[in-house]
Amino acid sequence: MAAYRRLIQRLKKDLKQQGPYLEKCKEYDKTPDFVDEIKIYFKPLDVSAKTINGIVILNENLIESGKWEDIMRYVVHEVTHVMQQEAGKVDGKVDKDKYLDDENEQEAFQAQIEYMDDHEPPEKIQQYLEQLLDHHDIKGPKRDHYKRELTKDI
Question: Looking at the 3D structure of the chain, how many domains does it have?
Fold first, then answer.
């Protein structure tokens, strides 16, 4: 547990240096220290990460991947959701078949992909987008629409 706490503290410290997070702080009228108030945990999950009532839960399998950028991109995404929840923009859980149509999800993915653009090669971003769209069974013209929508800030 102490190792998790140290890792979470490092994540929070690093997040305060990340452009996409700082942009969200401005947008939601938060200071960079806002992240210090957020509870973040690593636990077994059936997804990579989720946010429930302002608490960020990251899949403990992310630690095993060993790649800092992989963990951090999910932190960027989920902390965006915390800001959205505090701003009253969230109306409960999103149906899986409408997941990528949800404005809050699009905003969080855009911040995540913007973070990736700062730290990963373009091929890695494209690979991630393909996996995301495959996971949600998005095909045809809608697939291109989502790619454009989720990468419009990079």
Answer: 1
